[in-house]
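#help-structures
NK: newbie question, is this the right format to request a structure? protein is MATE family efflux transporter
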Amino acid sequence: MDATQANVRSFAVTNRSVLAIAVPMTLAYLTTPLLGIVDTAVVGQFGDAALLGGLAAGSLVFDVVFTTFNFLRSGTTGLVAQAFGRGDALEEQAVLWRAVLIAVVAGVVLAALSPLFAVAGQWFMGAEPRVGAAMSVYIRIRLLAAPFSLINYAILGYVLGRGEGGLGLMLQAVLNGINIALCFLLGLKLGWGVAGVAWATVTGEFLAMLLGLAIVLSRFRKLERPSRRRILDLPAYRRMLSLNRDIMIRSFSLLAAFALFTRQGAQFGTVTLAANAVLMNFFLIAGYFLDGFATAAEQLAGRAIGAHAPAPFRQAVRLTLIWGFALAGIATLVLLTAGAGLVALVTTSQEVRAIADAYLPWAAFTALSGVLAFQMDGVFIGATWSRDMRNMMLLSFLAFSAALITLAPAFGNDGLWASLHVFLLVRGLSLLAVLRLRVRTAFS
C-alpha cells in the first residue's frame, strides 16, 4: 500500500480497485444499520410503542450530535487520500494525530453536556412523557461514549484514506459485533431495555478504540514519525478546521432534515413515529450499501487529486456510479419483496406492523432516489471540495423544507416520505451539476 514518488501518478482505477474498497466497506457499514435493527428489535420485544419511539428519538438526537462531527471521519479520509496520492507518508500520520486531538477535546465536551442534550431533545421532539423519558435515559448514557466514538471516526478515516477496506471492515465488525452481543445480553436477557442498549454502545466504542489505536501505533513504530511541530502546525489545523466546518454544516443540515422528518412523524402519533423508525432502519440499510461505493469514490478521487491525475479521477466517478445504481436497484427489489417479513421480525406490535407495511414502498425506493447523492458526496469529500458540498446541501435542505410544508399537511405520512425523496434527488442532481466545472479547474 505504500505510495512512492515514482508511482503516485501512474495508478489505474478499475472495477477491481473499486470493489477492493467498496465490498469490505459495504459489509462494514451494513453492521451499523444491523445494529440499529437489533436495538429496535430488542426494545420492540417489550411490546411498548412508547419505548420504541423513545429509542428512535434518542437515536436521532445522538445522530444529530455525532454526525455533526462526522468530519473527523470524512475530512480525515480526504486529506489522507490526497497525501497518499502525493506519496507523503509523514503527512498521512500527521493528519491522523490532528484528528485525534480534535476528537479528544470535542468528545470530552460532548460527554459533559449530555444532560443538556437530553433536555433539548425532549423539548424539540415534543412527544408524550413516556417517550421523552425513554429518550432521556438513552441520550444521557450513550453520550458518555463521545470521546471513544470520535477517536474511532479519526482512525477509520485514516484507514479508508489509504484504501485499506479490509482493515476498515475488521474495525467496524469488532465495534458493532461487541455492541450487538451486549445489546442482547444487557437489553434483553438482563431486562435493562433502553438503558442496556445504550450501555452496550458505550462498551463497544471503548473496546474498538483500544483496538484501533493498538493497530496504528504498531504500524507507526516501523515508520519515520512526523515531528511534534508538524502535527501541531497551525496552518494545517486551519485548513482542516475550514474543511471540517463545511462538512459539519453539511452534516448538520443532513441531520436536521432527518430530525424534521422524525418530528413530523411524531405529530402523526406514537404508532406512526414507531413505524417510521422501523422503516428508516431499512433506508439506512440501503444507504450503507451505497456508502461502500461512496467510500471507494472518496479514496480514489482524493488519491487522483493528490496525484493530479484527471483520467483516474473520471474513471473513479464513472465506475462508482455504475456500481452504485446496480446495488441500489437490488436493494429496492429486496425491500419490496421481503420488507413485510423484516417488519414482522423487528416489532411484535400489530399496530406498528400495519402502518409500516402501508408505507414500505416509500422506504424501498429511497435507495434509487439517493444513489447519486451518496456517490457525489464521496467524490466531493475525497476531492475536499467542501464548500460546494455544503452549499448544495443547504439548497437541498431548503427544497426539503418547502416540500415538507406543502406535502405533509396535504397528504399526511405519504407527503412526509415524498419530501424525503425530494431531498435525496436535489442533493445528487445539484452536486452533479457542479462537478463538471470543478473537474476543469482542478486539473487545468
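mod (FA): yep, format's fine, and the C-alpha cells are attached above. Confidence is low (pLDDT under 50) at residues 1-8.
NK: thank you!
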